[in-house]
Design a protein that fits this description.
The strands form 2 sheets. The protein has a two-stranded antiparallel sheet with strand order 1-2. A two-stranded antiparallel ribbon has the order 3-4. Helices cover 27% and strands 13% of the residues. It contains 2 helices and 4 strands, in the order H-E-E-H-E-E. The C terminus is likely disordered. It has a single domain, classed as Aspartate Aminotransferase, domain 1. This is Aminotransferase.
């Protein structure tokens, strides 16, 4: 609760954790669009460690996006 309050006060959109140790925030309202770069800088800036959500996601290989749909090439 204390972390969420502090993050909100700093301008972050905070998603309330439910059954997890992680607090998730959206930094885009602050103009931050590179979560990995932010996570790398936070320890030296303010002594806080962060993990970008993308580290928990599977990104399909580009080759899976080739092909056609209804006769049109996919992006």
């Amino acid at each position: 609760d204390l972390l969420g309050e502090g993050l909100r006060a700093a301008g972050f959109d905070v998603f309330e954790p439910e059954g997890t140790f992680f607090t998730m925030v959206d930094a885009s309202p602050l103009g931050i669009d590179d979560a990995t770069a932010l996570a790398r800088r936070l320890p030296s800036l303010i002594g806080v460690a962060a993990i970008p959500v993308a580290m928990f996601c599977h990104r399909p290989a580009r080759r899976w996006w080739s092909g056609t749909a209804a006769g049109s090439p996919l992006p």
